[in-house]
Structures are given as structure tokens and as C-alpha cells.
Specification:
Strand order of the largest sheet: 1-2-3
Radius of gyration: 38 Å
Helix content: 55-70%
Oligomer: single chain
Number of helices: 28
Number of strands: 3
Mean pLDDT: 82
Number of domains: 4
Shape: elongated
Strand content: under 5%
Low-confidence stretches: 92-98, 162-172
């Protein structure tokens, strides 16, 4: 309340100094008054008076007459509503409203009316009545009455009850939830809200539903912050020394469900900038449910890259609970999915340092390598591959296919070595030719592997006894245009004719395949003879020199 009043006084001083126009100042003043809850406006009528004074100054500007008239109408509606509520609260047959006895009688009449509205299922009016009760009234209300009303209101709100007192009840449901939040905030400001009330499951569900439908997370975050501060203070020595009465209720740590409710509410209201602050201010026990909730927010496509980066820093600031709960793989997968590959790689190194025996799925590491190579960060790709290989990364069939889709064969061969590369290529070839020895299916394989798999398959046809008079030649099924172009270029290089009877299929006659194999055998014999002659010449020369 005082903050809003000082803001209006500052606007008035800026207008007097000439640094701000009266129309702009009056527009801002009306916004401040509209955002002020009605109980606060009723306690501080000077807010409306200052706004009216600014509007009077802005009325001198004829160019802004239409805008000033609209603002004056908005302010008048607020003032009329406040006057109507004040008249309703003052319509009590009490001659002396200043005495404590008269105030107690007013409370009895007011709470009786609230009980009657709740019993008649008129929740809209009931919550409106509760929201307008002042903090001083709650402070002199008996504890039993406070608990009964709070329990009834929480039960109604937690079950998602819809006001059914008139036709417009469903359209006004957000007003009911806003009144519930104002009622809880008033109880907290009056210091009559029970300790640890916010950590109860029913309270969490009620506050979450009300915040979502009212589109206001202020009260929920305020209660979470107060519980965090109270729990942190209860752990200090000064608090233990000052607590003389051991019967006082012990402050309970904020539950993970409370933090999850706050995060989901902020995510629904697109207030992602507050999620890292709320997460870092949390003083309760860590849990895997909290991490799952944060990762669900992180992988959303609507989250900006800057916000995702900030949230990832908040999540990875302390990796010990993540290792303890076994959530390392989920964290790395979320970071890779959200496009934060460098953060995922750095987090992988830290996690391996904390727990060298923890196993990370190779599919996640492969996704990191693929992302590095797609971004043309070749040095980072080679460095990451070496670090992962040193920590037990093994390239299997699935990893080989994923890497071959982006990494050229010669680069992958130099990284893996000839033996591992040949083994993976042989496994891929086995799957591609599993149905028929004379059929090679390359439709689902990377285009860079097509030529190698073709000649490997041709070499495997040698033991099957291929004859010149075979009716059906070798059929190769290809889908990608790049694979077709690579196969045709390789066949032309080796002088092997082919035909393409239909789109996506290459046919090699049996005679052409046999001719290629004979030429390969001849070339192999020539290479062997030449190698033998070279070795013999070297031996003779060495004898001559010696």
C-alpha cells in the first residue's frame, strides 16, 4: 500500500517538475489504482484522490481530452464500486461502531452471512465477502472461526467448485479465484494464517488452481518465499535460543510439491524469467520430481534460447542431487533436446567426474556428436569424441548409423579405426541384405554408406556361386537422390554397367558382377606379384650393399 502511494506521489512530483506529461502520469496512476486490491483501496482512499488530482491536471490539455475522459470513466467505476462495498459493510444496526463489543457484533453478523452463502453454494458471493474482510477483523476473530472458514474455503477451491448462483457464474469464476487469493493474502498479512499451512497438499492444490484461473501467481510466490525464509530462520542458533516454549509448532521445510506447483503456475502464465529465481530460493529437500518438472519446462519449444540457457544454469548449478537421484541421463537428454549442446557436454564431464561409474546412454552422447558436426564445429567434435572414447564410449550399430548420416566415411574411419569401422559396416550390410542375397536394401541407410555397402555386398556374392546365366541380377533399392548419385558415380568409376527399370532401383546384371569380380581377382594377383618383386629387389639390394 505504501509503495503504491509513494509511486503516485512520485508521478505527481514529475508532473510538477515538467519531466512527465500529465496525461501519461494520469494513465499510469489509473493503472496503479486498478491493480490495487479492493481491500487495500478501501483502507487507503488517498490513492484514488491523487489519481483524480492528476486527471484534473491532464484535463487542461485539449489534445488528450478523449483519453482523459476514458481514464476518468475507469476511475469513477472503481470509486463507485468501493462506495457500494463500503455501504454494504456499514448497513448494520449498531449505534456505536467504535467500541470493541460493537466490532465483535459486526463480525458475528458478517461471518453468519458468509456461512449462509457457503451453505447455499453461493461461492462467488462468499469469496467476495471473505476478500473484503480487513486484517484487523481477522485479528480479533476467534481462532475456531478462522480455522473453520479457512478449511471450508480451501476445500471448495481445492475441488474446483464452480459457482452456480446465476447464469454468469461460469464467466465470473476467475473473479472468485482472485477473491480467494486476496482472502489468503489478507490472512497472511494479519499473521493469522496457520503455520505450515501452505505445505499441506490440499492447500497446495487450492492455491495452484486459484493462481492458474485468476492468472496471478503473486500470492503463491509470496507464501513460498515466506515459508523459505521461516524455515531458513528456524535453522539458526538465534532462533533456537529465542524459542523458549517447546510447544510452539516447528517450521516445516517447503515441500517439493509446493515448488512444483509454483513452477507449473509460472510456466502456464509464461513467466519463465521467475522460475530460476524461485528454484534457487527454494530451501526444501531436493527430489527427482522437481527435476522432472524443470526439465519439462526446459524442453518446451516456446521457450526462448536465452531463457532456456538461464534455466539450464539454474538446474546444473548443483549436480550432486542429480547424481544421487539417478537423473543424469534425463538431464543430458533435455539439454540436447533444447539445443544446449555445449552445456550438455560440459555437464557430462562434470557428472563423470562426480560419479565415474555412472553410465550415460550412448544415444545421448551420439546426439551431442551429431549436433557438433552439424554446427560445423569440427574441433569440438573431435575433442568430444576423444573424451567420450576415453570414458568408455563405444560405437555400436545405432550409433554408427547416426554418425554416418552427417560424418563423412573417411573421417569416421580415422576416428574409429579400420577394424571397428569394418565390423560396423558388416553389421549394417547384414541387415540390408537379410531378405535375399540378390537384393540390397539401402533405403533407410545414410547416403554416404551406399557405395561401400554395394561393393561389400558384391564381394559377399562370390561364395554364393554366381553364374553368367543367372536370370536375376543384383537389385539395389535406393531412396535418397544423394545415394543414387553416389552409386552411379561409383559404378561408372569401376566400369560396371547398370540399368534403372524403375525409380529408386538399380539393377546390375550377373555377367557384369562376375566381370567386376574377375577384374578384381586379376588386379589382386598383379598387386601380389608386384609386391613380391619389390620385396625381392629390396632383399637383393640389401645383400649387395652389405
Amino acid at each position: 500500500m505504501q509503495r503504491r502511494y509513494r509511486a503516485l506521489e512520485k508521478l505527481q512530483s514529475l508532473v510538477a517538475a515538467g519531466s512527465l506529461s500529465a496525461s501519461d502520469a494520469s494513465h499510469r496512476a489509473v493503472q496503479i489504482v486498478e491493480s490495487t486490491p479492493q481491500p487495500v483501496r478501501l483502507q487507503e482512499p488517498r490513492l484514488a484522490e491523487l489519481s483524480k488530482a492528476l486527471l484534473a491536471q491532464a484535463a487542461n490539455d485539449s489534445a488528450k481530452a478523449a483519453q482523459v475522459a476514458i481514464l476518468q470513466g475507469r476511475l469513477d467505476r472503481l470509486r463507485d464500486e468501493d462506495v457500494r462495498v463500503q455501504s454494504q459493510l456499514q448497513e448494520l444496526d449498531i449505534e456505536d461502531p467504535t467500541t470493541l463489543k460493537a466490532a465483535a457484533l459486526r463480525d458475528v453478523v458478517e461471518f453468519s452471512h458468509v456461512y449462509a452463502l457457503l451453505e447455499e453454494y453461493k461461492y462467488l458471493d462468499a469469496f467476495a465477502q471473505l476478500a473484503h474482510i480487513t486484517p484487523s477483523t481477522w485479528q480479533r476473530t476467534p481462532h475456531t472461526t478462522q480455522q473453520q472458514l479457512l478449511k471450508s474455503a480451501t476445500t471448495v477451491m481445492g475441488h474446483g467448485a464452480v459457482p452456480a448462483q446465476d447464469k454468469m457464474a461460469s464467466a465470473s469464476s476467475s473473479i472468485m479465484h482472485a477473491n480467494f487469493l486476496a482472502y489468503i493474502r489478507t490472512l497472511h498479512d494479519a499473521k493469522v494464517l496457520p503455520p505450515n499451512w501452505i505445505v499441506l497438499p490440499s492447500s497446495i492444490s487450492a492455491m495452484k488452481l486459484a493462481s492458474l484461473l485468476a492468472k496471478d501467481a503473486t500470492c503463491l510466490l509470496h507464501l513460498l518465499k515466506a515459508q523459505n525464509n521461516a524455515y531458513a530462520e528456524s535453522l539458526t542458533i538465534s532462533y533456537a535460543l529465542a524459542q523458549r516454549d517447546l510447544t510452539e509448532p516447528q517450521v516445516v521445510a517447503p515441500s517439493p510439491a509446493l515448488l512444483i506447483a509454483a513452477i507449473e503456475t509460472l510456466d502456464y502464465l509464461n513467466l519463465h524469467g521467475s522460475i530460476p529465481l524461485v528454484h534457487q530460493a527454494y530451501r526444501g529437500p531436493p527430489s527427482s520430481e522437481i527435476l522432472d518438472c524443470l526439465l519439462r519446462v526446459l524442453v518446451q519449444p516456446r521457450l526462448s534460447r536465452k531463457m532456456a540457457r538461464t534455466l539450464s544454469v539454474s538446474i546444473t548449478l548443483d549436480l550432486v542431487p542429480i547424481v544421487e537421484h539417478g537423473c543424469s541421463a534425463a538431464l543430458l537428454q533435455a539439454l540436447v533436446t533444447s539445443g544446449l549442446v555445449h552445456d550438455a557436454y560440459g555437464c557430462y564431464l562434470k557428472l563423470h567426474k562426480l560419479s565415474p561409474g555412472a553410465r550415460v546412454p550412448t544415444s545421448i552422447l551420439t546426439d551431442m556428436l551429431v549436433a557438433f558436426y552439424k554446427a560445423k564445429q569440427y574441433d569440438q567434435f573431435h575433442l568430444a569424441f576423444d573424451e567420450m572414447w576415453r570414458r568408455g564410449y563405444v560405437v555400436g550399430l545405432h550409433e554408427f548409423r547416426a554418425l554416418s548420416a552427417v560424418v563423412p566415411p573417411h573421417v569416421l574411419l580415422s576416428l574409429m579405426g579400420s577394424r571397428d569401422y569394418s565390423n560396423c559396416l558388416a553389421e549394417v550390410h547384414t541387415q540390408a541384405s537379410a531378405t535375399d542375397p540378390m537384393l540390397l536394401d539401402l533405403r533407410t541407410l545414410p547416403a554416404s554408406l551406399a557405395p561401400s555397402l554395394l561393393w561389400l555386398h558384391v564381394e559377399h556374392l562370390r561364395p554364393h556361386g554366381l553364374h553368367d546365366d543367372a536370370k536375376d541380377g543384383l537389385r539395389v533399392l535406393v531412396q535418397q537422390p544423394q545415394a543414387i548419385a553416389a552409386l552411379q558415380a561409383s559404378l561408372e568409376q569401376h566400369n560396371v554397367p547398370w540399368t534403372s527399370p524403375r525409380r529408386g532401383e538399380l539393377c546390375l546384371a550377373a555377367a557384369s558382377v562376375l566381370d567386376y569380380l574377375e577384374r578384381q581377382d586379376t588386379q589382386r594377383v598383379k598387386d601380389s606379384v608386384w609386391r613380391m618383386m619389390v620385396l625381392r629387389a629390396l632383399g637383393v639390394s640389401s645383400l649387395f650393399v652389405s
